Amino acid sequence: MTVDNVELTKEVLAHAENYVRAFNSGDAAAVDRLYTEDAVSVWEKGKPVSGAERRAGLAEYLAQRPVMKIEILESYVISDTALLAVDWTIDIPTAQGTERQQGIGVDVLRRGADGQWRFAVDNPYGTDI
């Protein structure tokens, strides 16, 4: 059975939407399941994090109750690898109102043996950080 590129792209875009829902729920474990075991995140230029450090940073960030919105600018899918360019905003409630963060991210996803897409590289600021 072969899956065409259009179907793979639909799956990747659905994964991105599932990520937003999980992120906005504040459930760090649910968000973490959307990453590969060896995923790397680059939340600060020159400081990639992975493993327990990535998971702890994500949980700490989600504890602030951020709300994310995304627009997929570009998507490229071939075989078991995908690249997304994502325009995003995150609003974080503060005592003074709302803090807004935004950027254009670059994400690399891999399709696992189980057929599920997961983030392998998460760089929310692309080359702008």
Secondary-structure blueprint of this entry?
Layout: H1 5-25, H2 28-32, E1 35-41, E2 49-50, H3 51-62, E3 67-78, E4 81-94, E5 97-111, E6 117-123
Parallel strand pairs: 1-6
Antiparallel strand pairs: 1-2, 3-4, 4-5, 5-6
Explain this structure to me?
- This protein is α+β, with helices and mostly antiparallel strands and 129 residues long.
- It has a single domain, classed as Roll (Nuclear Transport Factor 2, Chain: A), CATH 3.10.450.
- 29% of the residues lie in helices and 44% in strands.
- It contains 3 helices and 6 strands.
- The chain has helices at residues 5-25, 28-32, 51-62; strands spanning 35-41, 49-50, 67-78, 81-94, 97-111, 117-123.
- Strands 2-1-6-5-4-3 form a 6-stranded mixed sheet.
- The protein is globular and about 50 Å long.
- The N and C termini lie far apart (42 Å).
How would you concisely characterize the structure shown here?
This protein is an alpha+beta fold and 129 residues long.
Q: What's the CATH class label?
A: Alpha Beta
| Arithmetic mean pLDDT | 93
Portion in helices: 25-40%
Number of strand segments: 6
Output the strand order for the largest sheet: 2-1-6-5-4-3
Tell me, briefly, the overall form: globular
Alpha carbon gyration radius: 15 Å
- Topology order in helix (H) and strand (E) letters: HHEEHEEEE
- Tally the structural domains: 1
From the coordinates shown, what is the CATH architecture? Answer: Roll
Distance between the termini: 42 Å
The number of helical runs is: 3
Beta strand %: 35-45%
The CATH topology: Nuclear Transport Factor 2, Chain: A
